[in-house]
Specification:
alpha/beta; Alpha/beta knot; 2 domains; 8 helices; 10 strands; 219 residues
Length: 219
């Protein structure tokens, strides 16, 4: 089981592949779904079971979904050791925004059922297929181009992205690990225009947003 918080996201769950087991709400009339009646709780109860500093109106207990690897289509994101739940949730939200249907995560990437990931994704986890794999094995068998983000890559403004490819985003502190880097067919970077030398790099979720905006802006 995992938790989903807030009526807005909870009401989207019945249209997805996920199943709600139970809903707890401070206002059951607003949180009941079809034949599923929410259990009334006090605001103090909600504070105790919520992972949020300022809890919303309701919490749903949902069943974990069996992982299913989809056939690649278009752009696919590959996450190599992303550790911060907020970054993972934001990347899932970006994938949903740009119509990317699948994200492949390394086995040491943050757990996407982590409440902070679910919250940061703002319901987008319902529409993006997320699968954990041994990346080296997966990419070795993959037939699509494998493009990685790297400070020493070509400027992504000049790079001609193919129609279908894997975009690899590396760990927040260490980047893409060597065994994955050797499988890349190309490297791209976001060129720095500012003169400050104190900003060493961009947040990984921010980088993903900038690069995906450029890729899909050309389509």
């Amino acid at each position: 089981m995992f938790l989903v918080e807030g009526n807005k996201t909870i009401k989207e769950i019945p249209t997805s592949d996920y199943r709600i087991n139970e809903v707890f709400s401070v206002n059951p009339a607003d949180s009941s779904l079809g034949n599923l009646t929410a259990t009334e709780i006090t605001p103090n109860d909600l504070k105790k079971i919520s992972f949020l500093q300022h809890p919303k109106d309701s919490v749903a207990v949902c069943e974990l979904k069996e992982e299913l690897l989809l056939e690649e289509s278009g752009v696919q994101l590959i996450l190599d050791g992303i550790q911060d739940p907020g970054n993972l949730g934001t990347i899932i939200r970006l994938a949903d925004w740009f119509g990317i249907s699948q994200i492949i995560c390394s086995e040491d990437t943050a757990d996407f059922y982590n409440p902070k990931v679910i919250q940061a994704s703002m319901g987008s986890f319902l529409r993006v297929n997320i699968v954990y794999q041994n990346l080296e094995n997966y990419l070795t068998k993959n037939t699509q181009p494998i493009i990685g983000t790297d400070m020493n890559g070509s400027s992504f403004y000049d790079y001609k992205f193919p129609e279908k490819f894997n975009l690899v985003l590396g760990n927040e502190g260490n980047g893409i690990r060597p065994e994955i880097e050797k499988l890349l067919t190309d490297k791209v970077t976001i060129p720095r225009f500012g003169k400050s030398q104190t900003t060493e790099s961009l947040n990984v979720a921010m980088s993903a947003g900038i690069i995906l905006g450029q890729i899909f802006g050309r389509k």
